[in-house]
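Xylose isomerase-like TIM barrel domain-containing protein, pasting as requested.
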Amino acid sequence: MKLMIWGGNLALTGGDIFAFPDWKEVIRKVGQYGFTPLLSTKIPLKEDDIYFLKESGIKFLQFSLDSIFPSTLQTMVRVKEDYIDNVKQMFEYS
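Structure tokens follow.
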């Protein structure tokens, strides 16, 4: 993996980084260059993922919740029935 830096800003775009299989390696590399990325997701993260982010110096995570109604979420973003429960658990880990 190559990471090229031009100037003082770094933007990771093109979708949810947590959908990328090697997202932890990307976060490690970004940190090696002294950057702290702003991360955004709709994916409820597991306890070990939250721990990894904390250990990597990530202090903020933007989470998008499109609805609190399971039927609406299943239609909009095709999530499983336990999505809201997983979101609640994620916030308990943080």
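Note for the archive: DSSP finds four helices and two strands in the chain.
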